[in-house]
Amino acid sequence: MSTSVLSRIGIASLIMMASVFLSRLMGIARVMVIAHIGGADASVDAYQTAFTLPEILNHLLASGFLSITFIPIFSEYLAKEKEGEGWRVFSTILTCLGSVLILLILLSVIFAPQLVSVVSSGRTDPAWQAQAVRMTRIILPAQFCFFVGGLFMAVQFAKERFFLPALAPLVYNLCIICGGVLLGPVLGMEGFSWGVLAGAALGNLVIQYIGARKAGMVFRPSFNVLDPELRRYLRLTLPLMLGLTMVFSTEVLFRFFGSYLEGGGIAVLDYGLRIMMALVAFFGQAVGVASYPYLARIAAKEGLKELNQLLNRLLQYLSLVLPVSVLLIVLRREIIIILLQHGRFDAVTTDLTSHVLIFLLAGAAGFAVQTVVVRGFYAVQKTLLPAVVGSMVVLGTLPLYIMGVHLMGIGGVALAISLSSTLQVVILFMVWNRYSRNRQSREVYICYLKMGLFSLLAIPLLFVFKQILPDRITDGSILGSLVTLMLTGAFFICILAAGARLLKINELQQAMERIGQRAKMRIKRS
Fold first, then answer.
1. What average pLDDT does the structure give for the chain?
2. What are the angstrom distances between the C-alpha of 143 and each of 60, 91, 108, 196, 201?
3. pTM of this prediction?
């Protein structure tokens, strides 16, 4: 691989990693604004429920997988210097599937009352149902923007243009925040719904249309449903459309089972999930997005043995999520106070959200690892196998949700999410090992066992350290929470250094070496 190619991949990875990081920061800001205006009110539940039908439509058209399924098809035409044929396929896919999506959106708008009552069957209050239906109808058209914008972004990726696609999630979150701040005083949570629609239209449609035009886009409406490339696209994408992926199933199931909780239950679960997902994004999503081009190239040129070597190294790195999750469990209350406890988000809601976070953070490693394991399958163009395995595990873990909501309430739903995600990724990795003959997978298992043991030992040490801090620091104020977070974090780094040596965990040792090197560099600069 030439140096220039590696340089371009590195720049693209930095742009996308920066986009992921900034979009997550914007996402946290969005959650903070929602918490300030809505707290854990039933209207926030209605707002969260309004995303269920749009999420299902988005999944059915596999809008989130366009970069995985469409780019390889389009890139082949570019490589063969048949760009005109590539735009023909682009036009056919956009016309045919876009038309199907418009029809599904119209049907969903018409039958929204009946559909919302199904996906939120635990809530029977007519006023609440009407509010959820109204916001659902506002958000539904945004799915057309996501689908078309996804194709616009895919052609930009294929042309090695990354800047405008990286803006999409930032603009989307910013518009939601503005919608809530500007329209919230008049429309309540409905203001955020209009922000969703505006963000999708501006960030995913208008800006990406400009980017696609600059990339040379040629669009001519084509209803050629017999086009062989359309069939090829559907063959690759159909498993993703029908499969129950980890993130999609979580988004749907927590809202469905949350509807059987008391008012505010869905809102609290969502607040906890967004905090947990920020950790997942920092480790898993950033690594998954940045590493996928490398995984795909290695799979195509060097084979499964070399692919497994890189995959195993990435998974060993992601084992760091386990001890970091433990740190966040210990500091969960302080984190929530700093981020969310203001406006209508009161101390009672803080207690409930911190309770939920215990169970959600237990599954953070599963979500992070899944972002890499599933890309191993995608790198070798195996979309059906992970879709089937994931769907079977999701269906098999439904009893966990049922028992959880009946036996433990909101904590039971959160625990079911974590157990389901962990089972999915363990089984998925076992299937991958069998398919790829990954003989070095034993090292990955050993790494996670060591890191899990270290994390269990770290929990009482962190709790004891936090307990011995003076009361004037742990007084529940924002300043006290910041000091508690910094002091406990520093103690955590000391534990990491000791654990790395005592348990001989290479991943921890390497992480500590990097931290030490960065600290020395900063000292020299200062």
1. 85
2. 11, 18, 12, 10, 9
3. 0.84
